[in-house]
Write a structure and sequence with these properties.
By secondary structure, the chain is of the alpha/beta class. It has 10 helices and 12 strands. It has helices spanning 11-19, 45-55, 76-97, 129-144, 164-174, 191-203, 209-216, 230-245, 275-281, 288-296, and strands spanning 2-5, 25-28, 59-62, 100-106, 148-153, 156-157, 177-181, 185-186, 189-190, 218-221, 228-229, 251-255. The strands form 4 sheets. It has a 6-stranded parallel sheet, sandwiched between helices. The chain has a two-stranded parallel ribbon with strand order 6-9.
């Protein structure tokens, strides 16, 4: 199988490049690639079309995204180009050559007003530009009618890039006191778990990947098991770090969202129900605390 992979410098893309190697020929494309045939800029539609037509993959996996949630409020056009329009163009080109598409979305397509986990059937109602553009991407893919799989995940972290885990570890070295929001609920999800689950889904395709996703594709929720707040996530990070260093790194203080205003509104409750993923693919991700311990204590980098 010939797999075109975008976003290989990102958290999920970097892990996917490693986990997909046993499933076929992985061709990584990015904006700054030295080879013109491997260059793709999601904000430039012509580069998307050209590269896909050159490579002619069987499967296109697109973890690339504009993920600066607050910055998106002041750059809505760029965020829409990358998150909303590009997935539709990718899907058009995939359909043209008979390929399938796997794409990643977010818990931020929901408004956070529920008090139980969101299912795939729940009404989306994003409260910020980032969520609106990611929802537009989902809708663009579906409207093309290409065989596809959209995996919504949440609170992604890893040991590379920009994410909450690395921010907390940096602040622990810079401050004696750290204030973290305690009234937003979700599931921290390790990028490697997302990549491994994706590979396991693909490996279940006994037939052509397009036929497989035409039959079993659609929108699925893919997050770690369990739930916590950003404060709970930070607390778990520091408790594990304290065990490693045998010292107290800092004082952690829980605060309400109103004490930490941001340009983009975050959903108060964005836990995703992954039961559909379990029912259709037999996959259940580990508890978020188990994954965090793998990252920090067992030092899987």
């Amino acid at each position: 199988m010939r797999i075109l992979l975008t976003g290989v410098t990102g958290q999920v893309g970097w892990e996917l490049q490693r986990t997909l190697m046993t499933l076929g020929e992985v061709i990584a494309v990015e904006r700054s690639a030295s080879n013109p045939s491997l260059q793709i800029d999601l904000a430039q539609p012509e580069t998307i079309r050209h590269t896909i037509r050159e490579i002619k993959p069987d499967l296109i996996i697109n973890p690339a995204a504009y993920t600066a949630v607050d910055k998106a409020e002041s750059e809505p056009d760029l965020a829409m180009a990358i998150n909303g329009i590009a997935p539709g163009i990718i899907s058009e080109e995939a359909k043209r050559i008979g390929a399938a598409v796997i794409h990643y979305s977010t818990d931020y397509v929901f408004d956070g007003n529920k008090t139980t986990a969101y299912t795939e059937q729940d009404q989306s109602n994003p409260q910020n530009i980032y969520g609106q553009t990611k929802l537009a991407g989902e809708q663009a893919i579906a409207s093309v009618g290409v065989p596809h799989l959209i995996l919504r995940t949440s609170w992604v972290y890893s040991q590379r890039g920009k994410n909450f885990l690395l921010t907390m570890l940096r602040l622990a070295q810079e401050r004696e006191e750290i204030r973290v929001v305690d009234d937003q609920i979700g599931a921290p999800t390790w990028s490697r778990m997302i990549a491994e689950a994706t590979a396991q889904i693909i490996s279940q395709a006994s037939q052509n990947i397009s036929e497989f996703l035409a039959a079993k594709g659609g929108i699925y929720h893919l997050t770690a098991s369990g739930k916590t707040s950003w404060y709970g996530f930070a607390k778990a990070i520091f408790e594990l770090e304290d065990k490693k260093s045998d010292r107290k790194l800092q004082r952690l203080i829980a605060i309400p969202s109103q004490e930490y205003p941001t340009p983009a509104t975050r959903p108060a409750y964005s836990l995703l129900d992954s039961q559909k993923l379990s029912d259709n693919f037999g996959l259940v991700l580990p508890d978020w605390q188990t994954s965090l311990e793998l990252v920090l204590v067992k030092n899987n980098s």
